[in-house]
Each structure stands twice: as C-alpha cells, then as structure tokens.
Structure prediction request, 126 residues.
Amino acid sequence: MTKRILIIDDDDGIRDIVAISLEALAGWEVLKADSGPAGVELARSAQPDGILLDVMMPGQDGMETLKQLQAQPETSAIATIFLTAKARSSEQKRLLDLGCVGLITKPFEVQKLVPQICELLGWLLP
Prediction:
C-alpha cells in the first residue's frame, strides 16, 4: 500500500520540491497544503500516514497547527515531523517537547529526505 504524506508549508517551492522528491524517490503520494488551517482540514479528510509541517508560517504557525492536529480525534494519531530552519538545540528541544516525532532542518538534502522520514516514522525504506 502506498504511503501518503501531507506537507504543510507556505512556500510553494518547498512544497513542490518535497512532493517531486518523495513521489520520485519513494513512490509515495504527496498531499500539499499552503497554510495551517488548510493542512488541518486536509489531514482530517485525507488521513495521511505522516505530516511534514513547517514551523514558521504566517497567520497560524506550525506549533499552533500541531496543537490543532493533536486536539482532534481524526488527526491526533498522525505522526508529524517539523520542518524548521531553527538550528539551536534549545529551540529544537522546545519543538520536540510539543509532541512531534522529529525534526528535519532546512535547508535539507533532497536525497536524504526519504531516509530521514523513514527513520523518524519507523518505516522501511521503499
């Protein structure tokens, strides 16, 4: 069964490069949302296997989006990985303490994205 990943990021370029990479390198289906509210709604309706969530977005940031995902029965069990440019360990610890399964720092290497996601979600490499 094909894995489904939802990427929630306000940057069109990031969404597109992640989608192209995951589809080409892993054969996963990638769903895209450009804001926290759109991502929460898409997660509720599509039930992806995992979520890549940008931390810094205008309006509703990734931390608030994660809280909303965790608060809803339909989405609370979906594993979420933060995408972040925050490199300091204190900032990363604060994000991990919110309940995500891990972090991938930007800029990321496209070739390493699939192995990083698999490791964080406990999936076998495709």
Notes: The chain has a mean pLDDT of 95. Helices lie at 12-26, 36-46, 62-71, 89-96, 110-121.
